[in-house]
Structures are given as structure tokens and as C-alpha cells.
Amino acid sequence: MVWWPVGASLFASNVGSGHFIGLAGSGAATGISVSAYELNGLFSVLMLAWIFLPIYIAGQVTTMPEYLRKRFGGIRIPIILAVLYLFIYIFTKISVDMYAGAIFIQQSLHLDLYLAIVGLLAITAVYTVAGGLAAVIYTDALQTLIMLIGALTLMGYSDCPADSGCQEPVPCQRRCSDGCVPEGAAPLHNGVPWDGQPHPLPRSSGLCRSRDLPEDLQQPLRLFGHRVSQTRAGTPAHSASTIFTMDLWNHLRPRASEKELMIVGRVFVLLLVLVSILWIPVVQASQGGQLFIYIQSISSYLQPPVAVVFIMGCFWKRTNEKGAFWGLILGLLLGLVRLVLDFIYVQPRCDQPDERPVLVKSIHYLYFSMILSTVTLITVSTVSWFTEPPSKEMVSHLTWFTRHDPVVQKEQAPPAAPLSLTLSQNGMPEASSSSSVQFEMVQENTSKTHS
Questions:
Q1: What is the pTM of this model?
Q2: What angle (nearest 5°) sits at the alpha carbon of residue 324, between those of residues 318 and 327?
């Protein structure tokens, strides 16, 4: 692949209907604070390019699981990550992508939701199975062009509607069903707390829209505003299948043939799709129907332990496998507890009493993410400090401070000395001390060949 379809695929894999519709709907309900995720994404990509990519290049790794496997060794952490990412793909990627795309098909063609899901899966299967990942990349490149044209057109409409002229911003004191706070309420934050972000953002409780859209553009926002996100199911299914076959099935059956891996991968994709379809009703009811917030909340419960272990591995040479393992275990257990509580105690409407537990009602998911990161950090640091340090091979070229370590050439074995035999006292041939090792190796190889 040349650079432009790869870059376009990266763009299209991130920006989609979750931003055009879902993110816009959350913005209409809670204000511009929800844009913090996209602003943070800019800094994250720059950090990847200037800080983490040099470590990847020095360590000759291409993915984060591969980095953690090389940095800490063992099989416990790779297996935990494989299971975790399969869980994340099912509950935040595949099911969300299918549901979001089906919503568009349902509203456009007036079809049943699950019939629209079947149609979406059929279309995705045609170009994914026929062309593989290359077809997905080129399809994403085409989507990038379409989305840029559509975004510029939408920006023109929203900036100055042709039929009514530009209007003043609308105060955020509308009725409860629109998602804004009741009259007279003074919340600490409006959806996204400013102190829960890596960089400060202004509170946005004053304004819900910068401008009114024409009626034909407002209607899709009302239909999909809180319920639509990204519309691609092909790439996550590819990735989840690869994780299962290469990281889990290969571990169970290390001698599996290429044909077996291919069959297992395709069967697993069907299983993933089935489980994701069964999960869609839960997605519809979660986080008050705001699909974008649903994705961010689950990520806040499951991703911080992995991020902390990765950052500690990159910047503290003393971090070892035991510290990383127990930090992951404790952090993921706490995150799963909060995740289950969120599914059990659904957020009520703003005109209904909130009787959820304090842990769910009063601690925003971004605050919980900060607590989770702190607990994981303390666990990793404590366990690593009181256990044996990692070997030099697991640190060299794999941290920020050792990325420039000189490459150590392995010593060349000395040339084999000619085999000289001497007679022992009983007349049997006996290898001399200088050639006994080679003589034993010849005997061992001969026996192996015979067996």
C-alpha cells in the first residue's frame, strides 16, 4: 500500500456517523464538551509518532500486544490482552457498528431493524471476503472522500441556513426530553467534566447549539442524535478473528495448519456476529441511548489498566512481568465491577428520581477512569519494586531510555577442532579433552537421525 490509501483508511476508521450524527447529537444534548475526545485524539496521535513510535522501531515491534509480549515475556499477559480485546470488539465495535449502520438503512428504506442488520452484514461480507483487507482499505479511502465532501456541505448549511438566515445561539434550557438539564438546575458538568480530561476544557452548560439547522437537516439529528456511531463492521471482524486464531487458538494448538487456522477464523467471525446481534438490545438501552457515550464509558472501564502497564513498561526499566500482570488483573476486575453495575442500574430520565448506588450515580466514568489508573499504577509499582527486576534482554531497546542501546553481536562459536581419538587403558577409543564435546554431539545427532 502507498501512503494515501493507508492515511485515508486511518481517517475513515475513526471518523464516521458517530461524529456526523452521534457526536453531534450528544453535543446538542450536553454541549461542546463532548468534543474533548477528538481534541485528545490529536495529542494522542502526536505522542504516538514522536514518543512511542521510536520505541517500537528500536524494539522491532509493530503492535502494543507484541510490545508487551517482548517487554515482559511469559504467556499470561498476551492471553489476558487477547481475551480483553475480544470482549471489547464484541461490546464496543462489532455490535455498535452493525446497530449504527442498520439504523441508517432502517430510516432510509423503512425496513425492520434486524432485517437491515442482515442486509448490512451481506454487503460487508461481499467486499470483505472477496477482497480481504485490501478491499476494506480502498473502501475506506472512498468513504473518506465522500465524508469530506458531505462534511463541508453540512458545515455550509449549519453556518448559515438558506431559508432562515443565521440565528443566535440557543440557550441550553429546553425541555427534559431534548437531553438538556431541567430549568434552574446547576450541574457540576454537562456530560463531560473538564477536570476528567488530560487538558482543561471550558464548561459548556450555557449553549447547546451554535446555530439552528434547516428542518430537513434537524430531522435526522432528532432520529439518530443519541443512537448512531461508526458504520463499518468489516475491519473489527478481521481484527477479532486474527486475535483469536493467532493469539489463542495457536496457543491451544501450536501445530495447527494454515487451512485449520483459516476455517477456525471464519467460524469465529460467525460466532462473533451472532453474539454481537444478541447484544444490540443492551446497546439500545445503555447510557440513556447515547451510543457515543456508551462506547467511551466501556473504554474508560477496561482500557486504563492496559494503558498504565504500557506506559510503565516504556518509561520505567524496573517494571517486570509480575507487576504488570497483577496490575492488569486488579484494574480489570475493578473495571468489570463498575461495568456490570452500569448494565444493572440503567440511567433514569432526568424527570425521574435517580436511585442508583453512589458508585454509579456520583462517580462519572471519567473520574472512575482516573481512580482505576491510579490503583493500577500503585499496584504495578509496588509489585515490581519488591520482586526481581527484569532481565537485560527484556529492557534493551524496549524503553525510552534504552532505545539507543548498542546492538550486541552474538559471539561466533570457535571452529570445530579435528576429532582425535586416543586409546584408553582397556584398548577402547577415547576422545581427547579438546574434542569430547564435538564427539558427543556427533553421537547424539546420529542417534536422533536413527530414531
A1: 0.72
A2: 120
Question: Looking at the structure, do residues 36 and 150 belong to the same domain, yes or no?
Answer: yes
CA distances from residue 86 to 92, 237, 248, 294 in whole angstroms, order as listed: 10, 10, 11, 17
Tell the residue number behind the cell numbers 490529536, with chain if given.
42
Give the 3-state secondary structure of residue 244. helix
The residue out of 233, 255, 285 marking a domain boundary is 285
The torsion angles phi and psi of 404, rounded to 5 degrees, stand at -100, 15
Pairing of strands 429-431, 207-209: unpaired
CA dist 21 and 229 (Å) reads 7
What is the pLDDT, as a whole number, of residue 121?
Answer: 81
From the list 203, 198, 200, the residue with the least C-alpha distance to 186 is: 203
Structure letter (DSSP) for residue 190? S
Summary mean pLDDT of the chain = 74
> What b/e sequence results for 35-60 when a residue is b if at least 16 CB atoms lie within 10 Å of its CB, and e otherwise?
bbbeeeeeeeeeeeeeebeebbebbe
> Which residue, among 300, 277, 293, 288, has the nearest Cα to 345 in the 3D structure?
288
Same-domain status, 66 and 32: yes
402 and 299 in a common domain: yes
Domain count, the chain: 2
Amino acid (one-letter) located at 123: I
**Looking up cell 474533548, which residue turns up?**
36
State the pairing for strand pair 429-431/170-171. unpaired
Q: Are 151 and 21 in contact (CB under 8 A)?
A: no
* pLDDT of 231 above 60: no
- Tell which residue, 225, 201, 228, has the closest CA to residue 32: 201
End-to-end alpha carbon distance in the chain = 48
The verdict on residue 422 lying in a domain is no
- 210/365 Cα distance (integer angstroms): 27
Highest mean pLDDT among 192-201, 281-290, 409-418, 436-445: 281-290
21 and 118: one domain?
yes
User: SS3 for 416?
Assistant: coil
* Ranges 176-185, 212-221, 305-314: which has the least confidence: 176-185
Given a contact cutoff of 8 angstroms between Cβ atoms, the answer to whether 338 and 298 are in contact is no
How many C-beta atoms lie closer than 10 Å to residue 357's C-beta?
11
Same structural domain for residues 229 and 104? Answer: yes
pLDDT of residue 448: 43
Burial of residue 435, with CB atoms counted within 10 A of its CB: 0-12 exposed, 13-18 middle, 19 or more buried? middle
Asked whether residue 424 is domain-assigned, the answer is: no
Kindly give, in sequence order, each residue whose CB lies less than 8 Å from that of residue 438, ignoring residues fewer than 6 positions away: 416, 417, 419
Residues 57-101: pLDDT tens digits? Answer: 999 988 788 899 899 998 899 889 888 888 888 887 778 777 777
